[in-house]
């Protein structure tokens, strides 16, 4: 006998509840949870007392714990404790997965059941589909004749095959193990099979860390042969793991790599090991770093917080030879130099502290022509033990202005002098041990004068103590020097504002005068941190134009310039600057030769400097243009120039850079002219073309060039790149590389590369990414 109930009925099923003439509708799921309730909402409920069933029809919704079931009709069979849902079935699971099917036969605790013609969408937008599926024990789902993909269905034609999918006779998703297993699986692109494997598995889309094999990589190189990398990740605990990555090379044998990572309460660190017993050492030129049996490396980095303001860390690397990391593409060791450092940092809102030690490791061969001359790149590198920087800005005002104090301590040792022989011999670094303690106190205050004029008086005092221990004849051994550089000055600006409905313009003359004594001990002291000096608009108004502590600008100097800025209502802007520097009294520091010839040839060595200027345009539409130059103070001939164009809009981007430097005979520098361009152009909604070139105009030769294609959508990424670096610009042979990276979202990515000398990595985690060219 069936009894219909009125429309819009809500029924709560719970243990020990009898409803509709004492008919027992208790849900078996409540045997596991005494507080569980199953809430049923429907247009109509039909009780069949003879069959002991309850049917809900019309806009049926069932809520149980965190499950939600929707269907056209749901029948609850009390003897078996099962629910049969038919018609537009939609089941939302606790984890966020959504199952869409035509029919679901499931237990009332939603732990076991059968599903026909289903589609499953996970919280990470991955999808399963199958003719039928079975739910077991609440955490295992078996899909028969199943399909898995992370691609969105085509909006215009949902029946169209996705870009990629994995079809299998059976797909087993174990949510407890968080693993998806496949039997008789084939990978399809646009419905076309491209690969078959009888069995494989991968973590489900919710997994971030899980023990198992990672996507393999493939490599090929003339010296290494063909190889395949098979990484294995071992998730030992939530805060530490190990990755083993053996690479099997046809010519050199097995390259073993491993990484240990450990995260603690206050920081983390890692240790990486790599090694190989080379089977064919003759593949490398005789007498080079590669001409040996065993080659290996160890690297480690770490960062730890002492408290909210202080931290310390390290980055260390050691190798058996200079080029192992580059030739075998060891992550973090593919550059020509590696910096080892141990450091301590401290920061506050206005102040900072930094203490570091450095050891620089050369990863390039000494030029063959210099071997008989005894030149050793590694011996020319300094060991810094240590360098300390401290900046402190006082909270209280002094004479109405701001007072700051900068401190520096530097101590270093170099075994051999780094000497360059040009028409004049100079030193990039001098042999010996040098220790310097420096203090730099600065004060400044702003005054607003009549008609908006801005006056900024300032003063500073720099003081140093040097200890010099060197056997090089350029310096005196065993000598201690002291020096001081007091200075006072004034900076003046008078901005004029011109406003109109479409543009706001600002014109401002700028003048700066600094009075100080002559620089001391210029030829007696080494120059380690003040060798970089490019005179342009960015340092025209610097109070000391030297980049470090080892040199101190002396004498009385005036810097004069004019600035202009225009802001347009459409978001565009334009600014320009032009100026010159004058040595008014005393010795011009830039005209006096030190051991490194710093200052000579910069345009500052005469009493009237070269002119410097800049113009910059930002269209507000993704295009930015900047040009800056230095012009001879006598005839305005161009001495140095840099022009850059940057464009970025949507998926289109590019840059064009031109560099020019007039020859500097005193330093033995020939004229340099170079242009570089990089572009990424969107060809379609998903495809992009990549291109880049660095061209030496003076030598009429390509330094480096690259061409590539890229595809990027919600489930698939592809990058293919060919690049070449000419042998005249690298210490290895001319490097020609073809590189392909494929990423299937949720399945992982893999790389394939062919390199003439085997100097590029094929692992997905490579830090020295060939695509960094773009």
What is the element layout, followed by pairings?
Layout: E1 2-4, E2 9-13, E3 18-19, E4 23-24, E5 38-42, E6 44-48, E7 53-64, E8 67-77, E9 82-92, E10 98-107, E11 113-121, E12 127-136, E13 140-149, E14 164-174, E15 179-189, E16 192-203, E17 212-213, E18 217-221, E19 225-229, E20 232-237, E21 240-244, E22 247-249, E23 253-264, E24 267-277, E25 294-305, E26 310-319, H1 324-327, E27 337-347, E28 352-362, E29 383-393, E30 402-414, E31 418-420, E32 426-429, E33 432-444, E34 447-448, E35 454-469, E36 479-493, E37 496-499, E38 503-515, E39 556-568, E40 573-585, E41 611-618, E42 623-631, E43 638-649, E44 652-661, E45 672-682, E46 687-696, E47 701-712, E48 716-725, E49 735-744, E50 748-755
